[in-house]
Design goal:
Layout lengths: L9 H28 L2 E2 L20 E5 L4 H12 L3 E6 L18 E5 L12 E4 L6 H6 L1 H22 L2 E7 L26 H21 L3 E6 L2 E2 L10 H10 L4 E4 L5 E3 L1 E2 H12 L7 E3 L4 E3 H13 L8 E4 L14 H7 L7 H19 L1
Helix pairs in contact: 2-7, 4-5, 6-8, 6-10
The structure holds uridine-5'-diphosphate-glucuronic acid.
Length: 375
């Protein structure tokens, strides 16, 4: 049955025209993608989709999410889709995965493009969330030169796109720009303590130059930028082979293996749940705040404490022989990290809603179910 609302008022004929335009845009951008950039665009299929809001054309935006098939990116894509926007998800699938966004493939508001941000791409967009870059130390150190290229050329290309289209640009920066911090907790005003020649430099310095590029484009070319400094984040859809502490410990505990603590385990981290982070990113994008903003959960744990929490949570009511073992310390591993989120609270009205323990229960359940699927 046709939608009665869609066929009546002038507003709705506008809506229909807009939809037609969107379809045209979709086709033209697909062609542009193939012809100019040799990018692969996935064919669409019919299916059931999560319920998206119907936005009026004035509020509907064309939003590009680079790294959109990654762990954080795919949750961001979900939220933007549910809000009713047109979303272009761009990923080279180095650490991202098609399965993270399969549920949107074929939806008329959604496009999936295989593309590496190191190469330029021509698209028409209103907002760019630039997340593309491996974030796990294991991955970003596995090809340090590529990480630097992604941080520099990837950000340069996306800022160029923002300049051309006058799109608002949000950089996913990181707590790693503070290095091994001499100030605790870390406010945005702290300039950091980074080893520029160490094994983490490809990421830390890469993200620092990405911030420097963003502010240079803002000053020189009036590009409308937002910078989020993201602290440790976890949740469903983390890769099994991610290598970061949350997924490592959960998988080890679920498989009854010893939990590998690097060094003495006295280093601290604060873990935020992915949905909180996504809410913070969207709030920042939709705000007027152009200074960098820390997004993180200030609940602080030592890695030893964290290991014990996981052992207890995963082992609940079950026989387990898993225990904590200490492996050699990792070079340049920051010894403490905790966000000062005063600015996020004051300027965005944002603070985490999900406690670390609550988020962890959901994440353990997710990993448990994926493990069950495997067997
Ligand atoms: O999770 C994140 O969002 C952050 O993860 C990393 O930073 P890092 O804090 O070093 O991440 P992990 O590899 O999870 O390490 C956290 C702590 O746990 C320790 N660890 C990690 C893994 C493990 O198996 N055992 C273990 O003791 C590490 O040595 C470190 O002290 C990235 O570099 C950041 O960009 C990113 O924002």
């Amino acid at each position: 049955m046709s939608d009665p609302i869609e066929n009546k008022s002038p507003q709705n004929s506008e809506h229909a025209a807009q939809q037609q335009q969107q379809q045209l845009y979709l086709r033209s951008s697909i062609t542009a993608g193939i012809r100019r950039n040799s990018s692969v665009v996935y064919p669409v299929s019919k299916g059931e989709y999560p319920p998206v809001k119907r936005l009026d054309p004035m509020h509907k935006k064309r939003i590009l999410v680079t790294g959109g098939a990654g762990f954080v990116g795919s949750h961001l894509v979900d939220s933007l889709m549910l809000l009713g926007h047109d979303v272009i998800c761009l990923d080279n699938f180095f650490t991202g995965s098609k399965t993270n966004v399969t549920h949107w493939i074929g939806h008329p508001h959604f496009e999936l493009i295989r593309h590496d941000v190191v190469d330029p791409i021509l698209l028409e967009v209103d907002q760019i969330y630039h997340l593309a870059c491996p974030a796990s130390p294991r991955h970003y150190q596995s090809n340090a030169v590529k990480t630097l290229k992604t941080s520099f050329f990837g950000t340069y290309n996306m800022l160029g796109l923002a300049k051309r289209t006058k799109a608002r640009f949000l950089l996913a920066s990181t707590s790693e720009i503070y290095g091994s911090p001499a100030v605790h907790p870390q406010p945005e005003s702290y300039w950091g303590n980074v080893n520029p020649i160490g094994p983490r430099a490809c990421y830390d310095e890469g993200k620092r130059v990405a911030e420097a590029l963003s502010y240079s484009y803002a000053r020189q070319d009036n590009v409308d930028i937002r910078v989020a400094r993201i602290f440790n984040c976890f949740g469903p859809r983390m890769n099994w082979n991610d290598g970061r502490v949350v997924s490592n410990f959960i998988l080890q505990a679920l498989e009854n293996k010893d939990l590998t603590v690097y060094g003495d385990g006295k280093a601290t981290r604060c873990f935020q749940y992915v949905q909180d982070l996504v809410d913070g990113l969207i709030r920042l994008m939709d705000s007027d705040v152009t200074e960098p903003i820390n997004l993180g959960n200030p609940e602080e744990y030592t890695i030893n404490e964290f290991a014990e929490i996981i052992l207890k949570m995963v082992g609940e009511g079950k026989e387990t022989t898993a225990k904590v073992v200490h492996l050699p310390a990792v070079e340049d591993d920051p010894q403490r990290r905790k966000p000062d989120i005063t600015k996020a609270k004051e300027l965005l009205g944002w603070e985490p809603k999900v406690s670390m323990l609550e988020g962890l229960r959901g994440t353990v359940a997710y990993f448990r179910s994926t493990l069950d699927d495997e067997h």
